[in-house]
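look at this record:
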Amino acid sequence: MSQITRIDSTEKALPMTPNQVIVAPIVTASFTDSTDLENLPTPNVTEAPQSARPSQTKQTRQSILSFPQRISQIVGPEQSNKPNGSTVIWSVLGFIALLGFGCVADEVQFPAIALFQNSNWTSQATLRPKSQKCFLGWLKEDAVFCDDLPSEQLIPGQSCNCKAGWTNDVIEGFEWQNTTYRYVSWRPTPKLIDRVPTYLMTLQAFFTYNTSQSLADSSATQSPSLWLAIYDPQLNLTDALEKGYTRMVLIAANGDNAINLGLTYRQAPNYPPAYDYDVSLSSNQNLDIVCDTSPGKYIQPCFVTLFIQIPTFDRRVIMQRPVMRWGVRF
């Protein structure tokens, strides 16, 4: 178990109703090494100073004091008066503590990815089914399947085939923010664990494109594009989008995309923690389009290539911890 070396907290009083104060601390903690995330300590947070509390009018104070039974329902009648008979009214403070710290992960499962085509945008690539590819290491068509290798051999320099994680078909009719998409997705099998930083994963998906249709609809011949989402494979795609653990990024489809992932492990409100990757992306587009389905131009399918790696296992962790305690005295 790690030892906490430092906890810093700042507080900000947030006005709610006239008789409520919520103290919202932002707490950071430094740990000497990785720790059990389920056993994080709750920080010792003190009351907000009087100067930080929202100002109350005399009428508001009198209104609160004239309804001690309301407070008694919250804290119990035995808490609403001191032993000497003088009235003391307490309010329950509820707030969320954000605990942030850094650690180094021993290993990381490779991420899940999805490539989306906006069904109503003709300047996007038209995804094709059943031809996707995946390799750990450099592309090697005759490489052994990754699941057939011992886990200790899955290290940089070892090439293997991981295409089993792809969906065979293009999924139709996916709705997100009032837009309809087609998509293909790749999800790692349980054995695909990245144990060494910079282990390269190469993914390819195939498509066609119609430059004549793009020109007619957009008044310009645009380069084909797709939307990319990278997310924690412990989540399903819909939850990853709805809970904010991933978002769609527009990429150049007709070319190569190099992607470095930073590790952020965070907790969305009322949801289990998961990875929310920091995506750094650069692209190199091809000079021609060999998959143009305009009359007399088609040669063969095009493909988008994704070179994905996690350059370091340094990990930022952001957790939420609800806290309830007795608070402001009137």
Q: What stands out?
A: Helices lie at 58-65, 68-75, 211-218, 237-242. The two ends are 42 Å apart (CA to CA). DSSP finds four helices and 21 strands in the chain. Residues 1-93, 326-330 have pLDDT under 50 and may be disordered.
